[in-house]
Write a structure and sequence with these properties.
The complex is a heterodimer of chains A (228) and B (257).
Chain A: H1 3-6, H2 10-35, H3 42-54, H4 56-84, H5 108-132, E1 138-140, E2 146-148, H6 150-157, H7 161-188, H8 197-224
Antiparallel strand pairs in A: 1-2
Helix pairs in contact in A: 2-4, 2-7, 2-8, 4-5, 5-7, 7-8
Chain B: E1 5-14, E2 23-33, H1 38-51, E3 73-75, E4 78-79, E5 101-106, E6 114-116, E7 119-120, H2 123-132, H3 152-162, H4 169-173, H5 180-191, H6 200-213, H7 224-228, H8 236-250
Helix pairs in contact in B: 2-5, 2-6, 3-5, 5-6, 5-8, 6-8
The chains are: A mainly alpha (228), B alpha+beta (257).
Chain lengths: 228, 257
């Protein structure tokens, strides 16, 4: 077996999903931490955003991040399609045990697609104007460095209640995707032995709740004018 | 519980052979005792069909005591019916009331083609076992018991994994028609023990490869397999199998070339 073969068996493809998924979870942690600076001050957030946008190592990791997202999406859609093809004649009746198996575990493709649609909107709101088109207002940080006023951009974007609602739906999709995804990735990597199973399950849920509540608080506080 | 009789409507999948297209047929059965097993109810129906000069319904069964893994009915949307940790043959009619309608389908997965009516071909499982579900050791004389010390918890886990009867309910219940619960149980009960340990990586790789060849799907860790397994095989076996596979990818010993 060669490397390509190892990662194209059914377990190998799931390993790709698990690796990229956990990598994206790490990114979420960083993203959430940086964005939470809005709750401290406009300058703190703009300085953090400036650091993320101007540090070479981080810009290189950004390429890895996009590669990870694309790989996760493509592999996920391929797996969904392949798995669907394994049962040509479906069941006439279905009485899934919803107590033992929550709905979101069976809806990862749908939730992932919703997150992807959200990401397209999200990237076009913030990443493209700040990194590609550079059409954001300039602001001066206390140390004299001139940078984009991303904070102002957030305030502008989140004036629309429709955008706020779409963001909340995006975060909700992400939350349910992670409720299953975090544990599932750990299971695929084989971390979930008897000793660690319950810890990882609980950790995934607590992590998801904290990160997603913080993310949800951002558009809401911008819209309500709680931060300025 | 008080004994009672019931009349039932059955909607059963009828399919002439693998090539033909199947359909549901409705049957009425009368005076079914609440003490009967689900398969005995089918026996009554088949006797009735034979008496009427019709073809009986083909279904798999052997031991009828929940250990052989032959019975394989998908009853009202659940593999082996509504009872937890129960095979179809151990499901009893006291679950149902007079006038109930019960829908019975075969396991549905491309890797398990329907042979006739409710009988599916599960030889794909045999070929997965042949790909690695064994240890390569000369048998010779039986060694003394306890000559190789085995930790209690490992012995227990191996025993729990060995409880898999290979019925295929995990595949039937899985939205992806994945055989990972079966495969991982068959790999685990060997790799947990000293005799099976040396081949654990190559076993994982070979069995996964064969599973893919047979046309089973991949595992999304949904857990419907565990929920419908009549023997309570745990998802932890899948994690163990994945661990072994990962060990084969990055470590030594997973290559058969």
């Amino acid at each position: 077996m060669n490397w390509k073969h190892y990662f194209t068996t059914s377990v190998g493809r799931k390993l790709v999903m698990g690796f990229t998924g956990l990598f994206l979870v790490l990114f979420l942690l960083v993203h959430c931490y940086v964005n939470s600076m809005i709750f401290i001050s406009r300058n703190a957030f703009n300085a953090a955003a400036d650091f993320m946008g101007t540090t070479v190592a981080i810009r290189i990791m950004e390429i890895g991040l996009f590669a990870g997202i694309i790989l996760h999406i493509i592999q996920g859609l391929m797996l969904a399609r392949m798995n669907k093809a394994k049962r040509s004649v479906g069941y006439a009746t279905n009485a899934t045990n919803t107590k033992q198996v929550p709905w979101y575990s069976r809806s990862m493709t749908l939730l992932g697609t919703l997150v992807m649609l959200f990401l397209i909107m999200h990237i076009s709101h913030f990443w493209i104007p700040s990194r590609i088109t550079h059409d954001l207002n300039a602001t001066k940080l206390p140390n004299g460095v001139e940078t984009h006023d991303l904070f102002q951009k957030m305030l502008d974007v989140f004036q629309s209640p429709l955008v706020v609602i779409l963001y909340l739906l995006g975060v909700a999709s992400l939350a349910f995707h992670l409720f299953h995804g975090f544990f599932s990735a750990c299971q695929t990597m084989g971390f979930t032995s008897h000793k660690y199973k319950n810890f990882l399950k609980g950790f995934g849920i607590v992590f998801t709740v904290i990160v997603c509540l913080l993310f949800a608080a951002m558009p809401i506080s911008m819209y309500m004018g709680w931060v300025a | 519980m008080e004994h009672y009789s019931m009349n039932l409507t059955l909607k059963v999948w009828k399919q002439k052979n693998t090539q033909s297209k199947g359909h549901f047929e409705t049957f009425q059965v009368k005076n079914i005792s609440s003490e009967m097993s689900f398969l005995e109810m089918f026996d009554v129906l088949n006797e009735q069909l034979i008496a009427e000069g019709k073809e009986p319904i083909a279904f798999d069964h052997d031991c009828r005591e929940g250990i052989c893994g032959m019975c394989s009915m998908y009853i009202n949307g659940r593999a082996h019916g509504p009872w937890h940790h129960t095979t179809t043959c151990q499901l009893h009619m006291r679950e149902y009331k007079d006038g109930d309608t019960i829908v019975v389908e075969p396991w549905r997965a491309n890797a398990f083609p329907v042979i006739k009516d409710l009988v599916v071909d599960r030889q794909a499982f045999d070929r997965i076992i042949q790909a690695g579900g064994y240890i390569s050791a000369n048998t010779g004389n039986a060694v003394d018991a306890n000559s190789i010390p085995i930790e209690k918890h490992k012995a227990d886990e191996a025993f729990a994994a060995a409880a898999c009867i290979g019925c295929g309910a995990c595949v039937a219940a899985c939205p992806n028609a994945s055989a990972m619960l079966f495969l991982s149980a068959k790999a685990s009960h060997l790799s947990l023990l000293p005799q099976g340990d040396p081949e654990r990586k190559i076993r994982a790789v070979n069995m996964v490869e064969q599973m893919d060849k047979e046309g089973f799907g991949s595992c999304s860790n949904i857990g419907l397999c565990e929920a419908s397994c009549p023997k309570g095989i745990s998802l932890e076996n899948i994690a163990r199998l994945n661990r072994e596979y990962l060990g084969a990818v990055f470590g030594e010993g997973g290559d058969n070339a």
